[in-house]
Amino acid sequence: MSDPAISQVDRLSALLDRFRVRATLFHTGALCGAQAFEAVPGRGFLHVLRRGAMELRHRPGEAVAPRLRLDEPTLLFYPRALRHEFVNPPVDGPDFTCAALDFDGGDRNPLVQSLPPFIRVPLDAVDGLRPALDLLFAEADHVRCGSRLLADRLFEVVLIQLLRWIVDHPEEAGVTSGLIMGLSDPRLARALVAVHRSPCDEWPLAKMAEVAGMSRSAFAAAFKQATGSTPAAYLTDWRLSLAASMMRSGRPVKQVAVELGFASASSLSKVFRQRLGASPRVWLAAKG
Hints:
By secondary structure, this protein is α+β, with helices and mostly antiparallel strands. The chain folds into two domains: 4-168, Jelly Rolls (Sandwich), CATH 2.60.120; 185-287, Homeodomain-like (Arc Repressor Mutant, subunit A, Orthogonal Bundle), CATH 1.10.10. 46% of the residues lie in helices and 19% in strands. A five-stranded antiparallel β-sheet has the order 1-8-3-6-9. The chain has a four-stranded antiparallel β-sheet with strand order 2-7-4-5, with no helix packed on it.
């Protein structure tokens, strides 16, 4: 059960406002035989095994189990590109509803970076998920005006509910460090949410610790243990992730620097080169 102190802080909205995710329904119904889902950069998947049994395969050497047998309704979440294959009976295969996921920022999306490559969750483990799934299935299974668009939005609702569960149960989701672990701590979550909401503000260690209600030394140690990063390094990475997303949408470097609290455009460019290995202009050109 989640700590009531954590639930008082909305840990996801600021993240999802800055880095949106779009779901696109592409299959509903039975799947028979072998079905492969190739790894496409920047593309994730959310599959709902509604009924039936199947075998899930990954390539040997990946950081996930090469074979899994599933025989209960389950969510299969791939936050980033990872090839996977469903092996089903040749006839009367199990029922799935599946969506492709596109995360703003691609590989630099903070949520994507903080999640394991694959998460498996039984449907009944996520409180409140069934009503959203019932609505999703009703729209996905019938052709009506706007049904595909509504199904896409409902898939996004299901994803947010899943992310909420992951933040509340990081160990069960296979999360060991990073942003998710920081958000699971009620004290660190307060500081992280404040930084996410106001990245342009000055955020010295003392101010972050004050928001968290901790001493500077205790906050710095807890932050490092949970996220694997220092508070200052996390702030820089958060600003750079925002900067990359803003520049890809066409915002000029000078404007981005002002909005994110950098002293100047050249200051942003310098940090950008240090962390990403290229100037903003070169980086943008490489991203096409």
